[in-house]
Amino acid sequence: MLFNSIDFLLFFPLVTAAYFLLPHRVRWVWLLVSSYYFYMCWNPRYVVLIALSTVVTWLSGLLLGRAAQVEDARRRAFLRRLWVALSFAINLAVLFCFKYFGFFWQNLTALAGLFGVTLRQPGFDLLLPVGISFYTFQALGYTVDVYRGELPAERNLFRYALFVSFFPQLVAGPIERSKNLLSQLSERHGFDPDRVRDGLLLMLWGMFEKIVVADRIAYLVSHVFDRYMELPGIASVLAVLLFGVQLYCDFAGYSDIARGAAEVLGFRLMVNFRQPYFARSTQDFWRRWHISLSSWFRDYLYIPLGGSRRGEKRKYANLLAVQLVSGLWHGANWTYVVWGGLNGLYQVAGAALAPWRQRACERLRIRKENPVCRVLSAAFVFLLYDFSLLFFRAPSLRAALSMGKRALLHLQPFALRGDALYTIGLAKPQFQVMLWALLALFLGDLLKERLGEVRPYLTRLPLPVRWAAYLAGLFAVLLFGMYGPGYSEAQFIYFQF
Fold it and tell me: CA-CA distance, 203 to 206, in Å (whole number)?
């Protein structure tokens, strides 16, 4: 069940209405049932996997709590490490089996072939369960939090199951922390019209990002990536640039809808994107992009590896390792590993060259807060990240390199003049709507960058102006949204991860 589907437009109001009508003591049970139904709409059989991850991490939390009471220090430390290791081993084994086994076997077969050995293809092919990387990492984060003593183990299995499966953020995040969401499951949430209004506004903005911007750009991007050998190189450049916007609007749109839906119900989910294309350094970019995953890797991988505490070389190695793992988290393909490696190198280069940039700015008397300098820095960071997305979007390394080569050797910068621009996936009216939508997106993000949160300012406007803005947003989605045949919804990109 997709957020941008008719099914969800029926499901969410019914779940919300029943939630507020039911007594407080059973509301979480209703949400648990609704969340499992939501997940089972994709493939009922794979609900076993989320249940397994839930039970394993819940038991590990209880066992960690018991281990903490053992008097012998050595035995206590051994048991605590054992339960954490088992929790990680079981969950990562399931993740490997369903997401990475095919990739592993393909590369093992290729390696064996170099030595003249032929390996027989396994006789099974597993489908990738929706959201498995997201809920696995959320559950493992709980295990680590209990291990560190940052929260007590949850004793109610079913309440913990709701934490893992909470439907607004189940299949594509944000990857919530147990310290934030678990405690909210016991809170009493009354019906608050202002909160409901704010949540619906956030959902509407997310729908705009997804249906009006991302899904429209997807037509052009898919057309060019599928036919780049027949098109001038400038088309590839344009497609890669626009894919950066598509990916942002697709994923940020999902996150905003998820946060808005949770807010309607009374829950507060973490912000997952904070205007990343306004970042002026690669380090700042990753503090703004997919924040729930970036902070997860920071807290549960980068810092345990030593972070920046063991010298510059170790810091750079840790940064690169985290980005490589992040690339592999996104998908079982070398393209994602290269994408992660490039972004790791960007961060290493940015950190290593920071003193040089500082001295150069001082000698040239360049003020970093100068508007021109800020725009150029943000544009440079965007172009660096956007180049890495060539590998993220391409089906293979060969295709990515071929597309990049064609863009360089057959650029033909003026080949898309005039009506030629409207032959690469979007007709003229659709292309013009895309430009207006991009302008609205930029202005919206600019306001958020300046004000922090736009909704409080919007709701203080005079009533006629306020309702004019609400209706303008609603009609923009209804009139200019991209709908397939029979109003079929387009899947979110991050569902494949």
Answer: 5
Q: With 0.90 as the threshold, say if the pTM is over it.
A: yes
Structure tokens at 97: 């089996």
Q: What's the rounded Cα separation, in Å, for the pair 28 and 184?
A: 10
Amino acid at position 209, single letter: E
Among 115, 113, 341, 495, CA closest to 105 = 113
Give the whole-angstrom CA distance, residue 169 versus residue 135.
9
Would you call 330 a catalytic residue per the annotation?
yes
Q: What is the 3-state secondary structure (H, E, C) of 21-89?
A: HCCHHHHHHHHHHHHHHHHHCCCHHHHHHHHHHHHHHHHHHHHHHHHCCCCCHHHHHHHHHHHHHHHHH
| Distance between CA atoms of residues 280 and 346, nearest Å | 13
Name the nearest CA neighbour of 265 among 34, 470, 39, 15: 15
H or E element: which one contains 379? helix 371-393
Are 242 and 277 in contact by the 8 Å Cβ rule? The answer is: no
Task: Compute the half-sphere exposure of residue 212: CA atoms within 13 Å on the CB side of its CA.
Answer: 24
Place of tokens 């988290």: 329
Distance, CA of 184 to CA of 178 (rounded, Å): 10
- Tell me the CA distances in angstroms from 205 to 252, 394, 445, one per residue in order: 10, 29, 11
Contact 60, 141 (CB under 8 A): no
| Lookup: tokens for 55 | 């039970």
* Sign of the torsion angle spanned by Cα atoms 287, 288, 289, 292: positive
Residue closest to 58 by CA, chosen among 167, 187, 163: 163
- Indicate which residue of 24, 223, 290, 330 is catalytic: 330
Helix (H) or strand (E) holding 440: helix 428-451
Tokens of 423: 């032959």
User: CA-CA distance, 216 to 211, in Å (whole number)?
Assistant: 7
Can you read off the two tokens belonging to residue 126? 């597993």
CA atoms of 212 and 436, how far apart (whole Å)? 10
Q: What is the pLDDT along the chain (497 residues), one digit of tens a residue?
A: 788 888 888 999 999 999 999 999 999 999 999 999 999 988 888 899 999 999 999 999 999 999 988 888 899 899 999 999 999 999 999 999 988 888 888 888 888 888 888 777 776 667 788 889 999 999 999 999 999 999 999 999 999 999 999 999 988 879 999 999 998 998 899 899 999 999 999 999 999 999 999 999 999 999 999 999 999 999 999 999 999 999 999 999 999 999 999 999 999 999 999 999 999 999 999 999 999 999 999 999 988 988 878 888 888 999 999 999 999 999 889 999 999 999 999 999 888 888 887 777 777 777 777 788 888 889 999 999 999 999 999 999 999 999 999 999 888 888 888 888 999 989 999 999 999 999 999 999 999 998 888 888 888 889 889 889 889 889 888 888 887 655 556 677 776 66
